[in-house]
Amino acid sequence: MAGSVTGSTIIDIDDRFSDSLNIFTLTINNLCNASCEHCYLNYSSGKEYISKDVIDRVFETEAKKIVIVGKEPFYDEKSIGILRYIVEKGEKSGKKVSVITNGINLPNDIDFLRKFENLDISVHGEGLYRTESQFERVLKNLDMLEKNNAENVNILSVIDSKTINSIDKVIDFTNRYKNIKRLLFSPFLKTERGKPYSVNEIGLDKLLGVFSKSKSFLKKENCFLLLDTYHFVDSELSVFDIEKAIIDSGLQNKVIFIKTPPTLMGILRVSHDGLVMTSYDALHTEYYRRHSININKLSGIDNYYKTIVSSYSPFNYQTFAV
Fold this sequence. Notes:
- By secondary structure, the chain is α/β, with parallel strands linked by helices.
- It has one domain: Aldolase class I (TIM Barrel, Alpha-Beta Barrel), CATH 3.20.20.70.
- It has helices spanning 2-6, 52-59, 77-93, 110-113, 132-147, 167-174, 204-212, 215-219, 239-248, 279-282, 301-310; strands at residues 23-27, 65-70, 96-101, 119-122, 153-159, 182-187, 223-228, 255-258, 267-270, 275-278, 293-294.
- α2 packs parallel to α3 (77-93).
- It is globular and about 50 Å long.
- It starts with a helix and ends in a 12-residue tail after the last helix.
- 44% of the residues are buried.
């Protein structure tokens, strides 16, 4: 679920233990115009938008990067206004800002869109989880980015029991565009979100088997399967087991495996209603109120992060659930 945790930005930082914050991920609203069956962001709080006070607290931290992960950051004009505020603060503070979006409502403002370090657009199968009109808008927006030579565009694609047979279609789709920086596939993980999923996870052996047989995947440059330890938190597989499976499949040059649990890499989440939590807890919206702390109750967020990681060994890679 590395793609869900931070999008493509996670591969821009070191895969190792960090005793200080590197990335703060934000959900800036609780609104979305799509209905992806694998989405974990099923959370009701009574609020719809993040406040400027919460954003300002995030920018007071040592975090070098801010990643807006949802719910849909470009949902409406108010959400886009919040994005502009975050980007402006990023420029003033020197913090890099990235965003994950379904690409449906991108504004026709290329100068603004270029300001994101990573503009991650989700494409789960060609047209899957999008209405026909929505997918046409995604195409139109990708055409606009291509025409204006935007160099910060990544495509993210979640692999579940519904999309597993669409890998080649996604690759063929992205081949239309020359400006895409990276195409990253990431496996779906069932999380505690308060309602059942209608799709299932794909086991490691099947996942690697399908990708190893895809000629399009093997051939395409800057196209990777992104794995992290969270995907295997309920299995008995060790990091070494996973690495061996990757090597045995012949995909060692096509898989990016994040071995360090993302929280221990210096990554925290803040929800749109100001709850601070670990990267792992961020995936389980049913437990947000139990496994988080309100940002207004923290005197120092950086010290809070240090408290979280102080009880974990940087060498204990069996500690997945943080």
